[in-house]
């Protein structure tokens, strides 16, 4: 469908000195009179920009208000992922150590969590944020993450425009405002997570896989920053026929990490000691209250963890069985369903098949927008009710207010988001089976 923006007449007198034109030239760019925007659209743009700016300011404040890390403030949640998964691991690496070694990290730095198995290239990619002092690094990284959220909103607006004639600038402003106001969006900046970059990579890989496979491969390499994103996404892209993207993106991530791995192996005295560190890292993660599948307080949203919190049942090998079951069933369906539903099923399969937390659903935002837009046009057709309900269920983590947690016990509270995401995946499966 062609939008009004695409059919707007070209200006016939760019050098006009009419008072009205001179007044428009003094307005901010987003308020300038654009013949493609109706008065209502300009009002929506203004309100979204103001609301987004207010929410962004509120979300950025923790980066300069958080106390400097010391052993006395290890329980501080503000910027904890920036502290534990970026700043001090990179400092350990730059000081000649191995940040994947939990014992070394806890001995040398004021961290509460160990450094999980991020791709080694992470230590180089984000090094600029760990070179200055902690405060400068925290503020810079938070501002960078905010820009990435705006870029993700722009990709979402682009995806929506395929199905509804929404002006790009309006769509970007609205989605960006919703992102920085939502719990998931605010959490990225409050905790200092790297998910905005990964979400941008996943969205780019899905949107560009056909027209620009080279760029899609680079985007997939960014999604590989956390292997629990990269591996299932590469598998599903391969299943959907984007084999070049899946293989090249994986190869790029491996090649970027190889120099760091070689350096860590040499520093540690060989392959054996390096592998011992990796085993120790995995063992430590499985024993934490936030990472164990049978933890009643973890915020994991994958099927295995949600199954335990709902039923109290943890069969032997459940995590491997879920990983294989979700990937195989989703791979069979994404090959034969319409694209926006296939994209939604892909990203949902990624977050429910292996260890993930509520903030990780950020990768689903462009697919959510596209499916919601197409649902509006086809809501009376078979399968589209399930697709719309999947988007609604997936909105739960974005709207979850932590004040509501006070009404429930910890097990119920941390299960809400995970159960909603698993239900969303199930509904996406139903939609994929009925929509071709």
Short structural summary:
Helix content is 66%, strand content 0%.
Commentary on this structure:
With 436 residues, the protein is an all-alpha fold. It is built from 22 helices and no strands. Helix 8 runs parallel beside helix 11 and helix 11 packs antiparallel against helix 12.
What brief labels describe this structure?
436 residues, mainly alpha, 2 domains, 66% helix
Domains (count): 2
**Helix and strand element order:** HHHHHHHHHHHHHHHHHHHHHH
Low-confidence stretches: 1-34
Amount of beta strand: under 5%
> How many E-type strands?
0
The helix content, as a percent range, equals 55-70%
Determine Rg (CA atoms, Å).
Answer: 23 Å
> Shape, please?
globular
Largest sheet: none
What is the first-to-last residue Cα distance? 20 Å
Class from helix and strand fractions: mainly alpha
Helices, by number, come to 22
Calculate the mean pLDDT score and round it: 87
């Amino acid at each position: 469908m062609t939008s009004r923006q695409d059919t707007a007449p070209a200006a016939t007198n760019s050098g006009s000195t009419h008072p009205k034109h001179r007044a428009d030239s003094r307005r901010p760019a987003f308020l300038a009179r654009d013949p493609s925007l109706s008065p209502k659209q300009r009002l929506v743009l203004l309100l979204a920009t103001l609301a987004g700016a207010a929410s962004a300011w509120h979300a950025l404040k923790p980066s300069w208000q958080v106390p400097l890390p010391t052993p006395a403030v290890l329980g501080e949640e503000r910027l904890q992922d920036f502290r534990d998964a970026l700043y001090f691991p990179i400092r350990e690496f730059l000081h000649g150590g191995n940040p994947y070694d939990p014992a070394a990290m806890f001995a040398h730095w004021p961290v509460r969590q160990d450094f999980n198995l991020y791709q080694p290239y992470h230590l180089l990619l984000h090094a600029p944020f760990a070179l200055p002092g902690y405060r400068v690094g925290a503020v810079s990284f938070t501002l960078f993450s905010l820009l990435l959220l705006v870029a993700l909103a722009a990709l979402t607006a682009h995806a929506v425009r395929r199905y509804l004639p929404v002006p790009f600038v309006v769509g970007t402003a609205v989605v960006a405002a919703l992102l920085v106001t939502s719990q998931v969006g605010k959490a990225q900046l409050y905790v200092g997570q790297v998910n905005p970059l990964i979400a941008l990579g996943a969205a780019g890989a899905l949107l560009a896989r056909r027209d620009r496979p080279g760029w899609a491969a680079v985007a997939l390499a960014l999604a590989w920053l956390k292997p629990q994103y990269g591996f299932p996404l590469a598998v599903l892209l391969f299943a959907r026929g984007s084999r070049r993207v899946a293989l090249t993106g994986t190869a790029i991530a491996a090649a970027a990490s190889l120099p760091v791995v070689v350096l860590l192996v040499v520093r540690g005295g060989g392959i054996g000691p390096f592998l011992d560190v990796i085993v120790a890292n995995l063992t430590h993660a499985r024993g934490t209250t936030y990472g164990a599948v049978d933890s009643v307080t973890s915020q994991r949203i994958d099927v295995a963890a949600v199954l335990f919190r709902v039923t109290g049942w943890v069969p032997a090998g459940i995590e491997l069985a879920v990983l294989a079951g979700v990937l195989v069933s989703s791979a069979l369906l994404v090959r034969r369903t319409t694209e926006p539903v296939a994209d939604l099923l892909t990203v949902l399969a990624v977050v429910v098949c292996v260890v993930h937390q509520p903030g990780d659903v950020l990768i689903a935002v462009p697919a959510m927008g596209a499916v919601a837009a197409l649902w509006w046009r086809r809501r009376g057709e078979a399968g589209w009710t399930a697709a719309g309900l999947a988007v609604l269920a997936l909105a739960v983590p974005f709207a979850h207010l932590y004040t509501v947690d006070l009404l429930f016990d910890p097990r119920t509270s941390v299960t809400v988001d995970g159960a909603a995401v698993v239900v969303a995946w199930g509904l996406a499966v139903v939609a994929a089976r009925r929509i071709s």
